[in-house]
């Protein structure tokens, strides 16, 4: 009974955060669309990092989230000035001058501001270049990690706000996928079979979040281009990486391993 109550409360909080983020999505997209290409990429990156602040697993963040009015704008102010502890943003922007990627797989982290205002605008940008995008989420919940079922709803709701997102979903150029994983980390050797088959065509891998991008995949080598994006919400780890609390990571690498 107690466990059921906790789950229900968790779902209610996640739903509330999703609604708050969705109410700001149109403004966020219009703002990004108003920027020149270089500044747009900087803001997309900062948005992904700021969105990743919204993590129920980090006490320092929970304390901030309890403050009335703490949203994406406030989270952006917490992101350190560049250069970040790992900062390949300019290299990534240079890469965007080349051909579009065929298919991207984005492994997202948290629901609410993270998924909706951080990662979804980035996915929309890739779609605008002609890239097919798979957004990959846990099969079961872990804290406030977005789940596959929740992701399906989020994409439908976002499509009501943004016609470009709706069109991409309808045309199956933007596809939600489940990972068959339940924790905050990411083991790419143990993916859902359907997703694993689709990964063969991926030429851009995007991994977001401290557990997925840092704890389990920071130094991994891949046969495709990769982006690892995260905010470190642990002071000890931040300092070990050469930064301070909320150290930012934006790691881009071209293919390292041969197929």
UniProtKB/TrEMBL annotation:
The keyword Ligase does not apply. Keywords: Nickel, Nitration. One of its GO terms (biological process) is coenzyme A biosynthetic process. Its cofactor is Ni(2+). GO terms for cellular component: cytosol; nucleus. It catalyses: (R)-4'-phospho-S-sulfopantetheine + H2O = (R)-S-sulfopantetheine + phosphate. The keyword Ubl conjugation does not apply. Pfam families: ARMT1-like_dom. Residues 12-245 form the Damage-control phosphatase ARMT1-like metal-binding domain. One of its GO terms (molecular function) is pantothenate kinase activity. Gene3D superfamilies: Uncharacterised protein PF01937, DUF89, domain 3. It comes from the Eukaryota. PANTHER family: 4'-PHOSPHOPANTETHEINE PHOSPHATASE (PTHR12280:SF35), PANTOTHENATE KINASE (PTHR12280). Phosphatase which shows a preference for 4'-phosphopantetheine and its oxidatively damaged forms (sulfonate or S-sulfonate), providing strong indirect evidence that the phosphatase activity pre-empts damage in the coenzyme A (CoA) pathway. Hydrolyzing excess 4'-phosphopantetheine could constitute a directed overflow mechanism to prevent its oxidation to the S-sulfonate, sulfonate, or other forms. Hydrolyzing 4'-phosphopantetheine sulfonate or S-sulfonate would forestall their conversion to inactive forms of CoA and acyl carrier protein. Homodimer. Interacts with PKM. This is 4'-phosphopantetheine phosphatase. It comes from Nesidiocoris tenuis.
């Amino acid at each position: 009974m107690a466990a059921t109550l906790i789950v229900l409360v968790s779902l209610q909080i996640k739903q509330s955060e999703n609604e708050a983020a969705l109410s700001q999505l149109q403004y966020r997209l219009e703002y990004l669309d108003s920027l020149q290409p270089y500044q747009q990429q900087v803001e997309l990156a900062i948005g992904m990092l700021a969105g990743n602040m919204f993590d129920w697993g980090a006490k320092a963040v929970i304390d901030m989230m309890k403050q009335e009015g703490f949203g994406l704008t406030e989270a952006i102010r917490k992101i350190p000035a560049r250069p970040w502890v790992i900062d390949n943003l300019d290299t990534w922007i240079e890469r965007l001058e080349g051909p579009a990627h065929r298919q991207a797989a984005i492994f997202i982290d948290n629901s609410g501001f993270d998924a909706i205002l951080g990662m979804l605008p980035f996915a929309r940008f890739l779609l605008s270049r002609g890239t097919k995008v798979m957004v990959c989420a846990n099969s079961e919940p872990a804290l406030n990690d977005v789940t596959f079922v929740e992701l399906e709803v989020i994409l439908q709701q976002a499509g009501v706000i943004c016609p470009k997102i709706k069109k991409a979903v309808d045309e199956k150029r933007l596809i939600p996928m489940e990972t068959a994983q339940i924790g905050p980390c990411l083991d790419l050797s143990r993916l859902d079979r359907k997703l694993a088959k689709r990964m063969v065509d991926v030429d851009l891998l995007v991994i977001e979040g401290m557990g997925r991008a840092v704890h389990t995949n920071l130094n991994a080598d891949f046969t495709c281009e990769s982006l690892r994006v995260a905010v470190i919400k642990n002071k000890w780890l931040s300092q070990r990486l050469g930064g301070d609390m909320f150290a930012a990571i934006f790691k881009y690498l071209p293919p390292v391993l041969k197929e």
